[in-house]
Amino acid sequence: MRNKKFAWVLFLLFFAGTALGQISTGSYLPHKELIFPQVAAGGQYQTWITVTNRGAQPWVGNLKFYTGQHTAWNPYVNGTQVAAGSLAVQIAAKATRTYKITVPGDVQAGYLVIRNETRAIDNFLEGNLTYYINDGAEVADSIGIIPSSPIVASAIPFEDFTSLCFAFANTDTLSRVASLTMTLYSDANSQVGTTVTRTMQPGEYFAEYLWQTFPTVSKTAWRGRLEIQSSVPVSGVALTQTASGQFSSLPLGGTTRSYAISSTSSYVPFATMTLWIDGIFVYGYGVSSNYPDVFGLMGQIGSNGILHIHFDGNSAATSNVEISGYMKTDVAYTPGLTSFSGVYYYGAISQVYLEQGTYLATLIP
To answer: Around 9, how many Cα atoms within 13 Å sit in the side-chain half-sphere?
Structure first.
């Protein structure tokens, strides 16, 4: 009976792993597609996008330019104007290309999604963006930017409130409205001003300085952090500007949420769980209550919002037995949840052992 039951659990784990691997065709695939939430051209600005295809077959897709609320933008790329906001490109295997984005006259801004059309398994895309700021005929400054991974929660520490600027685009592939909340904290973790909530329609884009987002906060130099949370994945970029006008890029990735884990039927092998979202994937670690052991966690949020997490371990916390496990939530997961519950399964093949039950995760402030 134990063997039969254990085989049943292995089937569940295999099925869960298969489901986890089914990535929606609407998702932005890492190393296949790139998002740059801020492109500037015109006036003293140029934006150069440099990409390479490390695959064995040509990469085929489109540069899709937007401004405003999913409005097509038609800048010039390598001297030719874009039509209907889209430029078809093909990058040969192992080739590197640079796309120089300009417009005549005053500065314009928008965002760029580099979208793969073939979904072939043997082509890949790596790339970066560089802003060039001219002073007459000379380049006075340049800033390198990495592609954006869509985020639902992020934290940006800053040294000077007056220097931080950022841009966000609602690039959600399901065309949902995003509710974006931004909260300021001092270096002593005291909230400064009131939380700002901005509703972003599908495809909407905006760029501004932090002091413009919080106009009632004194425009003076002080250190702190900006906490960002969104109801759906959005893409963003952050910059800091010196008093003399030079820019530097700041990383804008997913921030952590930690939870205390309790079980209503037996136990899971870790007592706390820390998660962060990076694009289409969820990463994290679980920590045992009795041993200094860390369990690696990896998962994905499905199109229905259910969080699926896989874990494994072989340490004192598992009696030095190799285990593999799986857990999922009962409700759609967002970093704003203060608690959520779900089910878990794990097994130790060498011991012909299985465990299944339910758990409760409670946010650790």
So the answer is: 24
Tell me: the pLDDT tens digits for 235-282? 999 999 888 878 899 889 999 999 999 988 777 888 999 999 998 899
337 phi, psi to nearest 5 deg: -70, 135
Secondary structure string (H, E, C) spanning the chain = CHHHHHHHHHHHHHHHHHHHHCCCCCCCCCCCCEEEEEEEEECCEEEEEEEECCCCCCEEEEEEEEECECEECCCEECCEECECCEEEEEECCCCEEEEEEECCCCCEEEEEEEEECCCCCCCCCEEEEEEEEEECCEEEEEEEECCCCCEEEEEEEECCCCCEEEEEECCCCCCCCEEEEEEEEECCCCEEEEEEEEEECCCEEEEEEHHHHCCCCCCCCCCEEEEEEEEEEEEEEEEEECCCCCEEEECCCCCCEEEEEEECCCCCCCCEEEEEEECCEEEEEEECCCCCCEEEEEEEECCCCEEEEEEEECCHHHCCCCEEEEEEEEEECCCCCCEEEEEEEEEEHHHCEEEEEEEEEEECC
Encoded amino acid at 362, one letter: T
Q: In the structure, what pLDDT confidence band is assigned to residue 22 with cuts at 50, 70 and 90?
A: low
Nearest CA to 46 among 168, 118, 171, 143? 143
Residue 17: its pLDDT value, please?
Answer: 46
pLDDT digits (tens, 9 = 90+) for 117-146: 877 788 999 999 999 998 887 888 899 999
pTM for the whole structure: 0.87
With contact defined as beta carbons under 8 Å apart, do 117 and 89 qualify? no
What tokens does 263 get?
Answer: 């079980």
Closest C-alpha among 117, 3, 11 to residue 58: 117
Instruction: State how far the alpha carbon of 271 is from the alpha carbons of 73, 291, 324, 342, 347, in Å.
Output: 50, 10, 17, 15, 18
